[in-house]
Amino acid sequence: MAAPAHASGSARGTAVVWQRLAAAPADLPVLDGHNDTVPDIVGRLGAPIGLAIFTEGNHFPALLGGEIIEPFRAWAQAQVQYAELALDNIVVVTLPQPMIIQMLLRGGLTLGNLTIEVSRVSGFYPDIVMGVRRR
What we know:
By secondary structure, this protein is an alpha/beta fold. It has one domain. The chain contains three helices and seven strands. The protein has a four-stranded mixed β-sheet, with no helix packed on it. Strands 1-5-6 form a three-stranded mixed β-sheet.
């Protein structure tokens, strides 16, 4: 069945709400709502992460626009002391800063029925956290 279309002809999105099938850990931030609350995660989870950057959404276009990550990879490869770094899997996570802080303090994030561990042991932990200090 085809998705309904707007007058302009583009497909129309619908909200996705996960049905809770398992109890969420009480101490983790929970994203349990519409599809626009899901974090942007670019990279491969479950594979060794060469560099992990956690940031707010405002930094996303700059980091992934081809002017920062790719030149950084090329620069690191050209440096003798960094040439052996495995930078084929750079993971960038964007969420509002308060959620990133809670993920780090509490060690994870729950997305509907999925809990993602955020720890050095799991391998999913930021090397860089980009944000601002709010007063």
